[in-house]
Amino acid sequence: MSSKRLEGRIALITGASRGIGRAVALRFAEEGATLILVAKSSAGLEEVDDEILELTGKSATLVPLDMTKHADIDKLGGSIYERFGKLDILIGNAAILGTLSPMGHIKSRDWLKVMDTNLTANWHLLRSCDKLLRLSDAGRCVFVTSTVGHVAKAYWSAYAVSKAGLEMMTRIYAEEVAGTEIRANLLNPGKTRTTMRGAAMPGEDPETLKSPKDVTEPFVLLSESTSTHNGIMMDEHGDISK
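Predicted structure:
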């Protein structure tokens, strides 16, 4: 039986229609969280919600939203406040890969789309939800990063730069909220069997990779009200690096 480690906690998860976001949504549902699920695909969100309903008997709040529509993200905080009055957990997971090629070959529109989705959207999300997190007795933020966000790798350009920016944004926010009940951290899930990983590494055997379900435990660890970590990066094993 579930330990219900997130019982009664209100959690927003972006990129929740597939991959890691979907797995985290299902795990959080098992742990008793009240879910607000954000993704571009309405059909994908409904499929996840059907699974949650079957699993728990409760439905999630579904928010079909394109993360490049920043004005819509800005409105999200107000909508959450009207319905729930606060937010306990913010999981910034949505991201796109973009083009893997030499830096000088990337088109401007492709570069900007990656930045808009992976970095700027998360800034809008954080700004929109900051006051809601402050209304929680233990606000928790977890932003999903990647090894290429802090270890330079040729041809990963826009994606890597967006994750590096996300890491710095999260660490700065962690410093700013250090005197509050909010904790903000990064999570690097490592090599995981996702659609994005398949696009980035087409020659890789997906069966050699862990499933998204296998990386949900550190999300729970960092989202619990008892967690004291702030400004750290955790990997899929729960190991921590500053």
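Summary: The longest helix spans residues 108-134.
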